[in-house]
Amino acid sequence: MSHALTSLQRRAADLTPILPVVAVPALLALPLTPDGAGPADVVSGLAVVYCVSRLLRERRRPLSPAAVVVLGLPVVGLAFAAMEATPEAGLSGMGRYLQLFVFVPAAVLLLLRDRADFRIVAWSIVGLGLCQGAVGVHQYVTRTGASYQGENIRAVGTFGPHDVMGMATAVSLGLVCAVGIALGRASVRQRAAAAGCALVLLLPLAVSFSRGAWIATAVTCAVQLALAGLRRALKVAAAVAAVGVILVGGFGVGTVMLQQRIDSIAQVADAPDHSVVDRYALWASAIGIWSRHPLTGVGLKAFPEYRDGHATLALSSGSDIHGAGVAFEKQPLLSPHNMYLLLLSEQGLVGLLGLAGSWLALLVCGLRRLLRVRTRGPGLDCALVACGLLVWQLTDFMYGDIGGPSTVLTAVALGLVAWWALAGDERGAAVPRNGTRQRVEEALAR
Prior knowledge:
The chain has helices spanning about 1-15, 20-30, 40-60, 65-85, 85-110, 115-140, 165-180, 190-205, 210-230, 230-250, 255-265, 275-290, 305-310, 340-375, 380-395, 405-425, 435-445, and strands spanning about 145-150, 150-155, 320-325, 325-330. About 70% of the residues lie in helices and about 5% in strands. The protein is built from 17 helices and four strands. By secondary structure, it is mostly helical. Strand 1 (about 145-150) and strand 2 (about 150-155) form a beta hairpin. Helix 4 packs antiparallel against helix 5 (about 85-110), helix 5 packs across helix 16 and helix 12 (about 275-290) packs across helix 14. The longest helix is centred in the C-terminal third of the chain and has 36 residues, at about 340-375. Strands 1-2 form a two-stranded antiparallel sheet. The protein is globular, with a radius of gyration of 22 Å.
């Protein structure tokens, strides 16, 4: 009995550092509370506290100078924007931005010890995508999802119609992780499992009816294939084509509504639908706000206050929300649905350059390390996952911004990117591990 108890204690101690990180995607798979809150945000904060306590206990330097500079760039713009806002909005807005783009990514970077930890977190994101995707497909089939063109068929997972991008984001990031693992140099079994998960996730992504997620995922997967090599690209393209034929011909996924949604991507300039008209009006409003306050913006969370003063008459009063267990209501348009324009309007050039500069630095460092390992080095799957996650996020930010419970997943994804870009070489080497850790790594390598 004592031997078994000691063994369990060793296993728990060995996996403890990354459990707070893995818990965030796991908790995002649970239904939200009636007020829209979720435990994942709380756990992400506890992960930061846990990371700080480990650093104090181990008495080691937390971050390299390069990591401090890259992750600390957004703080300058946030400080100026917080001073421009009201005290309440400034404090809450700055706390949210620091949580998503500084504290949680830094905690993930510090809690991951090597590539095995990275893969565990990546697979947890794949698992979240599969769980949310299963709920979404059930909503589509049983017509219990969010309303879309008069029918409750839009897959939103457990996030509900108030966060229609939540399920699409979880599924897309899970698909990107699966594609990166499948294109790496892991065992045939692991690559086959990842490829299978990626193909399965195509269906819930399709019935999410999210054009922004479709575009971001297509761009990201194309980039991952190009970085992995021509041979793998041709194999994956053939597999995707085969699955597309099966889904459209065998299961009838290619419905009229889905086809119309796909066609509408090319019609945003000629005959845009109402949601696109609203988005154009919001973008124009954000640009107008920035033109009046170019350097530091109007302050955090101040876009709604200045929106109507710069918006055209084409902007509606809000978007219609109903379905998936929610009665009809109007959801106010509180952001421009473009992260870069949100930064420009609320934080000005200083805020945009700080955050975008941080993301660009992560992308450059990540791609540089990917090129080092692409030929024969270890960790190609981690490189493709990390670079893919960042490319997806940067592309999706052209059509969306932060908001909703699913946003904390972005922070975890940026933490994986930061680990690969800023610590992948130094901390990707072998570290002391006990028997449990050795078995975990061997399982991930098989």
